[in-house]
Amino acid sequence: MKISIVAVGKLKEKYLKQGIQEYLKRLSAYAKVDIIEVADEKAPENMSEAEMAEVKRKEGERILGALSPDTYVITLEINGKMLTSEQLAAKVDELATYGKSKIAFIIGGSLGISETVQKRSDLALSFSKMTFPHQLMRVVLLEQVYRAFRIVRGEPYHK
């Protein structure tokens, strides 16, 4: 299985990079996982609705450009479906069983995900009704993907 995390913006924080590297190493036993960073747009504080839509549109084009047509797309959205770790594991297992060997998780920029990316999404997933920094979500997502593989394989994991 090939899993991509398509994320808007560059990661600068060393501690987050270390966490990501640790989970990428752990995941290498289960799947090929790569992180694709697409450039973010400048988003000053006092933007109009039209300016915000334009930022999301440009970032959305970059996200869509990183996806192949046969990829199963899971967007991380605050209003998406909430799953338990076991349900996410079952979803990953189901995708593998039915030949969906390419999965991409999408982490939008600071303003969220464009409508065109939402339309391309096969599953909108929410980790919480709370807002998290999109950089931190990379680590949280990788941990949950790792946990999903452990659950599917019947291996022990922290409950």
From TrEMBL:
Presence of the UniProt keyword Transferase in the record: yes
One Pfam family cited in the UniProt record for this chain: SPOUT_MTase
Catalytic activity reported: pseudouridine(1915) in 23S rRNA + S-adenosyl-L-methionine = N(3)-methylpseudouridine(1915) in 23S rRNA + S-adenosyl-L-homocysteine + H(+)
CDD domains: RlmH-like
Single annotated GO MF: rRNA (pseudouridine-N3-)-methyltransferase activity
Binding positions (S-adenosyl-L-methionine): 76, 108, 127-132
Coiled coil, from the record: none
Alphabetized InterPro entries for the sequence: Alpha/beta_knot_MTases, RlmH-like, tRNA_m1G_MTases_N
Subcellular location: Cytoplasm
Listed PANTHER family: METHYLTRANSFERASE, RIBOSOMAL RNA LARGE SUBUNIT METHYLTRANSFERASE H
Function: Specifically methylates the pseudouridine at position 1915 (m3Psi1915) in 23S rRNA.
Protein name: Ribosomal RNA large subunit methyltransferase H
Natural source organism: Lentibacillus populi
